[in-house]
Design a protein that fits this description.
By secondary structure, this protein is an alpha/beta fold. 55% of the residues lie in helices and 10% in strands. A 5-stranded parallel beta sheet has the order 3-2-1-4-5. Helix 7 (123-126) links the parallel strand 4 (117-119) and strand 5.
């Protein structure tokens, strides 16, 4: 099977929540061979874990990231094609007076140039990007 979905950070982090949504967990399992994350998304929970004091919680997050995410989910880079698409979209949106967060633009660009559907719980944040397919698994 080939890749179909690029997961946003909130989707990747859902299994770490005290009460994860069962529907999201089922979809992660059902589509496990079709999902990828971006290098931007990989950085976000790693940064969060690095900021935590040494604790069982931090250990659990690092273990999940290393043994589940890193071990089973491909990580796609922000490359030249993504940077070029991102630059064009930033310029288009800036002309309209809209300035989405830079990281969101990077994630959107990686999804777009790899022809993947972006899965996020913040779909309104990404709908302004032209030609980007966005779904919510909630």
């Amino acid at each position: 099977m080939s890749l179909k979905y690029l997961l946003d950070t909130n989707v990747v982090s859902e299994p770490l929540r005290p009460k994860p949504q069962h529907g999201v967990i089922r979809k992660l399992s059902r589509h496990e061979v079709e999902i990828a994350i971006s290098s931007v998304v990989w950085q976000e929970p790693r940064f969060g874990a690095e900021r935590l004091p040494m604790s069982r919680r931090r250990d659990a997050i690092v273990q999940y990231l290393d043994e589940v995410v890193l071990a089973t989910i491909p990580i796609l880079d922000y490359d030249r094609a993504a940077a070029e698409w991102h630059a064009k979209e930033r310029a288009r949106l800036a002309a309209r007076g809209e300035t989405p967060p830079f990281g969101d633009g990077q994630i959107a660009a990686i999804a777009h140039v790899n022809e993947l559907v972006l899965v996020t719980f913040n779909d309104a944040d990404f709908r302004k990007f032209q030609g980007l397919r966005v779904v919510s698994w909630r």
